[in-house]
Amino acid sequence: MRLGELYSLDWDRVDLERRQLILLRTKNGTARVVILTEAAVSALKELWQRRSSTSPHVCLTRYGEPMISPRAWFELVMQEAVKKNSSLRDVTWHIFRHTYISRLVMAGVDLRTVQELAGHKDIKMTVRYAHLAPAHKLAAVDRLAEYRREQEMAKRQEATTLAFVAA
User: End-to-end distance of the chain based on CA atoms, in angstroms?
Assistant: First the structure.
């Protein structure tokens, strides 16, 4: 999800039973449904327990008030995280979208489904986001070598079978 989509989310757009969020206002101007993982559902259930009776918003400040600046909140959280681990210095909210999309692709999810899950109008944008880890690319090339070995073995078995039948 985009930062603005998450922080403008109201509880009436959350369906925990179906594991969905219904986004009415998105960057590309169309409504879309976000499918939730079990971990996301658990986190939302925890937020539900701490929700404010005076606010419809899912994401609130520690004081139970709507966030005026989600970006500022994220920057504060990241400042604390960087103090604990300096390698997080360059982490931005948007990196999470890239990671989500790349991991879907590396898990074998087809690009059309990834496009829909990401909320991209154009599949070209999905392809731009779908960075593959070097190890994933190496594994793909190794699969080609494995495929060739399997083909050669099948040919040898076929030749053995034909020789056996001919004898």
Answer: 66
pLDDT recorded at residue 167: 67
Q: Which residues are catalytic?
A: 2, 27, 94, 97, 120, 129
How would DSSP label each residue in 52-109?
A: -TT--BSSB-TTS-B-S-HHHHHHHHHHHHHHH-GGGTT--HHHHHHHHHHHHHHTT-
Q: Which residues of 9-31 are buried (b: 16+ CB within 10 A; e: fewer)?
A: beeebbeeeeeebebeebeeeee
Specify the pLDDT at position 82. Answer: 95
Average per-residue pLDDT for the chain:
88
Of 25 and 83, the one with more pLDDT: 83
- Residue 31, phi then psi, degrees to nearest 5: -75, 150
Closest to 59 in 3D by CA, of 9, 23, 25: 9
Extents of the domains making up the chain:
3-91, 99-131, 133-167
CATH architecture designation of domain 3-91: Orthogonal Bundle (1.10)
